Amino acid sequence: MKLSRTWLSAAAALMLAVPATAHAKDYKVGLLLPYSGVYAALGKEIDQGFELALQTRLGEMAGSKIEIVREDTEVKPPVGLAKTRKLILQDQVDVMVGIVSSGVLGAIRDFVHQSGTPLIVANAGNDDATGARCSRFITRVSFSNGQVNRPMGDWLYNKGVRKVYTLAPDYAAGHQMIETFSAAFKAAGGTIVGGEFTPFRTTKDFGPYLTKAQSAGPDAIFVFYAGGEAISFVKQYASFGVADSVPLYGSGFLTSPLYVNAEGPAAKGVVTSLHYVPTIESPENAAFVKAFSAAYGHAPSEYAVQGYDAGQALVEAVKSGATDRAALAEALGKVRFTSPRGPVEIDPATNNIVQNIYIYETVQGDGTLTQKILDVAKAVRDPVSGCQK
Amino acid sequence: MTADASFWIVQTLNALQLSMLLFLLSVGLTVIFGLLHFVNLAHGSLYALGAFVGVSASAFAGSYWAAFAVAPVAVALVGIVLYVALIRRMRNAGPMNQVLVTFGLIFVFLDLFRLGWGDIPLGMAEPDLFSGRTEFLGIVYPTYRLFIIGLGLVVLAALSLLLSRTQLGAIVRAGVDNGDMAACLGINVERVFFVVFCLGCALAGLAGAVAAPVLSVTTDMGTAILIPTLVVVVIGGLGSLRGAIAGSLLIGFVQTFGAVLAPQAAAVAVYALLAVVLILRPAGLFPARG
Questions:
Q1: What percent of the residues of chain B are helix, what percent strand, and what percent coil, each to the nearest 5?
Q2: Cβ neighbours, 10 Å, residue B225
Q3: What digits encode the pLDDT tens for the residues A17-43?
Q4: Which sequence ranges are marked TM in the entry (chain B) (predicted)?
């Protein structure tokens, strides 16, 4: 009798011990992206980048496996919130990754924060998400609207530009990008001679705005447009001949490699700033571009690298030994690694990424347009504006 | 802001260019509306189809003019399929069912565009003949935009000749005025409807191909243009060519000069105009039927 009890407890101890030593913890990731709607192309790029990072660095996680549960936000805040609830409550994910639209991020922020689930933001750039509404559970590996544009203020002034006219769509990101640039440009000594915020997504004809901008007599025009609006804007800018007298500068999404070829020759010579371009010369980027192109048949965009780095950040957090949600969030806030876009780290004060910003010109390559890097602003860090984690 | 003449001439041309694009779209919609009493919400999707087909055609043939020729034909063919498969059956189903069916078509087309052309916006080059800029009256203006204005005027002239001087035009006018009476007089109203529907589709396709070099070609371009087009049709009055051109000019000018003079109000200016017209002239400015 005594013997069998001893034997049983030994067996029980062994059963408990086996899972802990032989295989490491497996993680469940909720990947929440727009797979339909206006940002579907961006969702796909982020998804592909994320998958590639996990595949590439699978071997480093000591046997841990990562299971991905995908959900579609449809770029609608209420849908995003419902899917977030499902991922956190029903699927019990350890960590969430994704979010393209800042509108969706705003809608899910409180639920994510209160549930204590770590969220790696792979696009949404609203300054407030790592500013006044920051959370210790929300880590952003993409960019903030201000971060991308701030270095252009000094840079343009040093290039001899004194008077700038600004244009952007009339929504939160448009305002933040332009206001950050304007503040930096004015601080450097420049003057904003005028500007306009055009109705978001309903403006097809920029002719009236371009004519008005030209008549204000600026040295340069600085704009933020993305996607379809960027294509329309750049083409119409060229067709009105504004380029001959007033050069175009902007936020790098204007000439994103994702769609710059649809803009055609009109995009040549446009100078913008962004956190990633495929032509960065580093071994990490060369390997990334090669692996991504081989896997998906096209060169990676800044969105792909954001997905890739969301994956890298997760791998780093797993490697640190974090197993539960709180520990993962803690670990994510401290990661630092070498990204295809250069050295990156998470700012412990805001949980926003610290990264290089590349000022690049769109130039003609072999058959397609490519990016020529003119300057690099190193380790750009956002000010701690109201963030109390 | 500068108040010199050239600034206002350029803005007037901007307004005219937008008006003509709206006219190409709304004229098909309004005649189908007026003649068939059919609410075709998928008209915007046909415009987008014209743009997508145009992008592919011009890329395939290496010339803009391939798009110009192929897009209207292809969209008219799709129109024929729609007419035979759906619209003929829905003729007497009442406006609510028609709205539901054509509203559903919008989503079908959206997904077809995504499957066929992907989610990334596309662009198309201007024809070499009209690239660059033209100088006149002391201003410099993109030549392609002048081409759009010219094309709109040509279509307007052709349609008004067709309606006022030909037998088909007389039949269409009779059909819009009183379809039952026209049928009693031995006119095959159904066949006229079919021809008019195809023509409307072809014009939507043409508008798509013409707009593609100026705008970006996106899957949602059809839904984005639908509302302004419906506003044009309602302001102008259902079923009339005069209404379509008057409505297009009004919207084109209000939108352009709204953007110049009061940018904050530009988005609502069009709807304010719509409300005013509906209060003062509920049937529109130039209704086909008195």
A1: 75, 5, 20
A2: 27
A3: 444 444 578 899 999 999 988 888 899
A4: 20-39, 46-64, 70-87, 99-117, 144-163, 192-215, 221-241, 253-280
Q: A212 to chain B, minimum CA–CA distance in Å?
A: 7
Contact residues, chain B, for A199 at CB < 8 Å: 266-267
CA distance B175 to A90: 60
pLDDT of B286 reads 87
Q: Given A211, A232, A261, which is nearest B216 (Cβ)?
A: A232
pLDDT digit string, tens, across residues A161-185: 999 999 999 998 999 999 999 999 9
C-alpha to C-alpha distance for A36 and A92, rounded to whole angstroms: 24
- Identify which of A344, A364, A363 has the alpha carbon closest to the alpha carbon of residue A355: A344
Burial label, B271 (beta-carbon count in 10 A; 0-12, 13-18, 19+)? exposed
| A93, pLDDT greater than 80 | yes
B chain contacts of residue A244, beta-carbon cutoff 8 Å: none
| Cβ-based contacts of A232 with chain B (< 8 Å) | 214-216
Tens digits of residue pLDDT in B234-267 = 999 888 888 999 999 999 999 899 888 887 787 7
- A90-A93-A96 Cα angle (round to 5): 120
Q: What is the pLDDT of residues B8-27, one digit of tens each?
A: 889 999 999 999 999 999 98
Kindly report the nearest CA distance between residue A256 and chain B, in angstroms. 11
Domain A27-143+280-351 listed as CATH 3.30.565.10: no
**Phi/psi at A27 (5° precision):** -115, 150
Asked if the domains A27-143+280-351 and A146-274+358-380 are classified in one and the same CATH topology, the answer is yes
| Reported ipTM | 0.86
Cβ neighbours of A207 in B, within 8 Å: 10, 14, 17-18, 145, 256
Sketch the domain layout of chain B as residue ranges: 16-220
pLDDT tens sequence across B219-232:
888 888 898 999 99
Mean pLDDT of B52-64: 92
Encode pLDDT of A52-79 as tens digits: 999 998 888 888 889 999 999 999 999 9
In this prediction, residue A12 carries a pLDDT of 52
Q: B194: distance to nearest CA of chain A, Å?
A: 32
Element (H, E) at A148: helix A145-158
Top-tier CATH class for A146-274+358-380 = alpha beta
Q: Please state the φ and ψ torsions of residue A259, each to the nearest 5 degrees.
A: -135, 10
State how far the Cα of B222 lies from the Cα of B45, in Å rounded to an integer: 5
Query: How many interchain CB pairs under 8 A, A with B?
Result: 105
Return the residue in B130, B215, B260 with the most chain A beta carbons within 10 A, the one to mutate for interface testing: B215
Q: Say how far apart CA A337 and CA A380 lie, in whole Å.
A: 15
Please give the C-alpha separations between residue A388 and each of A125, A129, A134, A147, A366, in angstroms, as whole numbers.
18, 12, 7, 19, 49
Residue of A nearest to B213 (CA): A235
pTM: 0.88
Per-domain residue ranges for chain A? Answer: 27-143+280-351, 146-274+358-380
